[in-house]
Amino acid sequence: MRIEQLIYLIEIAKCGSISSAAEQLHISQPGISQAIDSLEEEMNTKLFQRSKRLGTKPTEDGKKAIKIAKEILGKFEELKEVSNAESDQLNGTLSFSVIPSVCMSVLPKTLAAYKDRFPLVKIELTVQGSLQIESDVLNGKIDIGIISNGNYEQKNWEHSEKLSFEKLHDFKTLACVGQQSPLSRNDSVSPEEILNYPIVISNSDYKMYHKITALLRKYGEPNILLTTGNTEASKRIIAEGLGIGFYTDLELKNDPYVLKGKIIPLQISGEEKRSAFGWIKLKDQYLSTTSREFIKVLKSTICVDF
């Protein structure tokens, strides 16, 4: 039994086909097939059921083997990192995604501190909605993700069996209007009042979209002017008075539009429950030192700034 066989085993289960796994791992399909056949012979059991219609699915023995293989590879990674234990020698890749509110608030200081301490680590970062980040972590495209959990209870989270979520900080959702809006003189706005105006909101990949539309639909149908993942574009539209937008208090803390008075944040009356953002990973995945150290730096930044 070889380490690469365990890697192939996990990748086939993740991709659902041998050809896709071979493509992801940049090896030949016959090579990966032969390695799995050899592993099945050595273990004297069938690890996958192959079907043209359903693809390649792990058997019950295969599922058990995959779980153990992940544990073994986790320990193998720990072993490789023993010689890399000194902080100034830490290298490797940190692959993660964050939601825009984190990117616009705590992330810049976090990255600066992290790169100052670990200059040899290569960072692969994307900014996406929580739902896409969850999908990417589940599919192994990224190591960790920083998401909003909306205002859902953890026990009702659909991915709670496969993903672990650790809360990092609470936040509150605010409605934002332009300085010329009639609402700008108020401290708060009700959902019924919001329905009288067009709204500018993140697209459906973001939990903010589902949270706000669900709230407003308790009172009527919202007039959605624009859905976008472009935070800067939506703020310009809001500043021009074309619609009401929605952001977290976290990302508005030092926002230039707010500081210059171009956008006025308002409390949403009747929406008192705070949400939280936190980090996620696969429950059965070993967390690399690069990821663990990043989470430490992130927590430290949050403690100092928030």
Automatic annotation (TrEMBL):
Stored Gene3D superfamilies: 3.40.190.290, Winged helix-like DNA-binding domain superfamily/Winged helix DNA-binding domain (1.10.10.10)
Lineage: Bacteria, Bacillati, Bacillota, Bacilli, Bacillales
Pfam family, one: LysR_substrate
UniProt protein name: LysR family transcriptional regulator
PROSITE patterns: HTH_LYSR (PS50931)
Similarity field: Belongs to the LysR transcriptional regulatory family.
Domain HTH lysR-type: 1-59
Superkingdom of the source species: Bacteria
Organism: Cytobacillus depressus
